[in-house]
């Protein structure tokens, strides 16, 4: 059985919910990623959302706001989705396809240990699985 941990990009970088979006953008640049799980230090550092590079551009910059003044908490929306590291990759695919999401944090012992992205899917799945994923996420 291939697990979520087997295909994830390890070592996901967190950002606290009180940090500003310019700091989030800097971390994304420094780590070469397009998304960061957002933690809530007041709640045991549990994940409370996810910030993407697109969120920063569309919800902050394009809306005329200053990314140095807007916090991650202000643009996090909805319930964050994640998958346990020991889960079968088929479960991760179902979650991503069902929610039409392109990045899925991987959690082990209540901590984010990695992220599954489209690139991880492309590298680790068969051509048929990739085609089905693309059809369902982008439909």
TrEMBL record:
Residues 8-67, 75-132 form the CBS domain. The keyword Protease does not apply. InterPro entries: CBS_dom, CBS_dom_sf, Diverse_CBS-Domain. Keywords: CBS domain. This is CBS domain-containing protein.
């Amino acid at each position: 059985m291939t697990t979520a941990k087997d295909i994830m990009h390890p070592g996901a970088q967190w950002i606290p919910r009180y940090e500003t979006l310019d700091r989030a953008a800097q971390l994304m640049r420094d780590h070469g990623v397009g998304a960061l799980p957002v933690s809530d230090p007041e709640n045991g550092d549990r994940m409370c959302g996810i910030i993407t590079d697109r969120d920063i551009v569309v919800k902050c910059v394009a809306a005329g706001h200053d990314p140095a003044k807007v916090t991650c908490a202000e643009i996090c929306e909805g319930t964050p989705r994640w998958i346990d590291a020991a889960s079968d990759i088929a479960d991760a695919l179902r979650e991503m396809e069902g929610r039409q999401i392109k990045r899925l944090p991987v959690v082990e012992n209540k901590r984010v240990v990695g992220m599954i992205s489209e690139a991880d899917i492309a590298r680790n799945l068969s051509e048929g699985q990739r085609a089905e994923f693309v059809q369902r996420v982008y439909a």
